[in-house]
Amino acid sequence: MRPDTPAENVDHTAEAARLERTAGLYPEDAEALLLRAAAHLELSGDRPDASALYDRLLSSAADLDNPHLVRALKASNLWEYGHEAEARAIIEGVRSASPQDPAPWVIVAEALESHDELEAAHETFTEAVHRLLTDVAEPSYATHPLLFGRHRVRRMLGESHDEWDALADTVHSLPITLDELHDPKRVWSLGSENPAELEAEILRLRAELGAYREALSRPFPVAILHWPAPELTELLEAYPSLSSEYPTHETHLATIESALRELASSGTPNLGIVTGTVPSYEAFAASELSSPDDATLLPQYATTLAARGRAVAWPPQQGAACWCGSGRSYGECHGTTN
Q1: Which residue blocks in the chain are alpha helix, DSSP H?
Q2: Measuring CA to CA, which residue among 190, 185, 188 is closest to residue 205?
Q3: pLDDT digit string, tens, across residues 13-64
Q4: Cα of 225 vs its chain's centroid, Å
Q5: How far is CA 277 from each of CA 28, 234, 324, rounded to the nearest angstrom?
Q6: Which residues lie across from 224 on neighbouring strands?
Q7: Cα separation of 83 and 80, whole Å?
Q8: What are 101-132's pLDDT values in tens digits?
């Protein structure tokens, strides 16, 4: 499915089937692809088949990158079609595991919230922000939904602002404040006959829609291919003709950073980096009925990796490790301005 395909024009069942077939071709990306397939099944209303995909992932022999995320999604889906007890048990298991990734926390907390379990949702959001954001200089983009969700639930509970709510206000970037967006009385304004109230609510809804679109745009269709040093050595030993593309590893890294900065300065959004491996590249070349020493395959390979969810955001968050794998922070490595 193209990123700009209108939602109402998507055949979710067909898209789920396509993603399952793709997962069979690229088993190393099966987790990300099957999660997307399950999401399409949920949107199509086929929640039992979505649960079957989550079970397939959880029972697979391969180690999952984020098993807590899969369990959280399974719990949220189960609750939606009547399996409340099982969903609650899984949610408690996710909370007990205390994952370091914010996504499972957000999903289970929002599942509780959507079923009017506001106190439990508040406890879950609060536990997550304490575990993931205590003594953190600047919250990463991925943790923002924790702060926003907690703020929203506290507004519905009538709680006064605390330090975490203040932090949520700080990272919130839309022109309408969080207090306005999360005002429990907003629902009543939708039934108002006052044109001014309706117009104000339309502005708030547009702001929320903008936030959702920003979040959904996080996949990175414009990605630059990165070869770690050992992989690049192996690549050039096997296919020496590619040496013209990669004179040295240091030059390769510098070229990536300069290309991304040039794209950013031209206004290109959603930039990212994908990391290649020689076996994966050879498999891609074979699928294209071409030879790996064909340099024109390299950008196509990068685009394919990005489409399979392998891109990492550029630039990294402040204080995050550099994308090159040096172990230093981005600001101390390729993020320097000189």
Answers
A1: 12-25, 30-44, 47-58, 67-80, 84-97, 102-114, 118-133, 144-157, 163-171, 178-181, 186-189, 195-216, 229-238, 249-265, 278-287, 297-307
A2: 190
A3: 998 999 999 888 888 888 988 999 999 999 899 999 999 999 999 998 778 9
A4: 19
A5: 12, 9, 14
A6: 273
A7: 7
A8: 999 999 999 999 999 899 999 999 999 999 99
